[in-house]
Amino acid sequence: ATAFAKCGGCADAKWKRRLPTALIHLLCVECFHIYLAVLSWRGLVVSLNADRLLLQHSISTAGINTYFEDLLFVGHAVGTNVTFNNGMSLVLPEVWAKPGNANVCWVLVAWLLPLAALALIFVVLIDFAEAGIWSFESGAYVHFTWRLYRGDAYQTCVLAMIVGPIVLPIIWLVETGFYTPRDVQFVNLQVFQTCTWKGVILLLSLYRLVGTRTPVHHWEGCDAFLRSTLRRDWRSLCCGCSNATFGLKLLDALWTAQHGDLSRLMRFVPDREEARALLEACRRAQFEETE
Question: Which domain-ending residue is among 173, 190, 210?
Fold first, then answer.
């Protein structure tokens, strides 16, 4: 069993060395909330206008929702006939967003967050290419992401992503109050209320980008830490914890190791000697930081 475990460990180490695991982890885990923010924003902007049009023409999907709620959560759904728009068809005319048209404003607002997100990913990839990191188990990769979150370019792009969600409700309320007929104002407010949960999801994902907390210590940039190899589960490559969370676990392991318990730090390094060496290097760098 021991020989089999060693063989499995060797095979696991080989494929990790062959694959650009740092790039995979960066795109799948570290950038995940960027994708979530863009998708949430797209759903919010589209559903606001689509739901408003449905309510204006008395088209309700409540019957369909109730049907599937009963079927999936009760196990039985009564046969239902759903009639849309009193049996009349809804014609959507061809429309172009042209200067002087209100749709131009919506197009500009809709593209604020995706363009800022694209710029953010571009900044991340440029910095990553300059770092030249291959393995997501290297201390250099952990240090790269910790430094990245605190960088001015990263923070600027994230703040630019927040502009759209701030401007959207302002435009919506101004349009509702000053440029919408009385009989449609209530519909707009009703749609705005129903889309609130999508806005909450969007704000949570943006908060994840803005509120990323990483260790702020000079020891993370010392040569011993940058050259170190930190053991990580292969499952964390695509769907595991981010380096910010990983850093909290590592800090906890270093703290307990400093007080004589190396068991937690041993989870990150191959043997006890390397654990002591990493602890001593970080301790020395931390001491120099406080001088």
Answer: 210
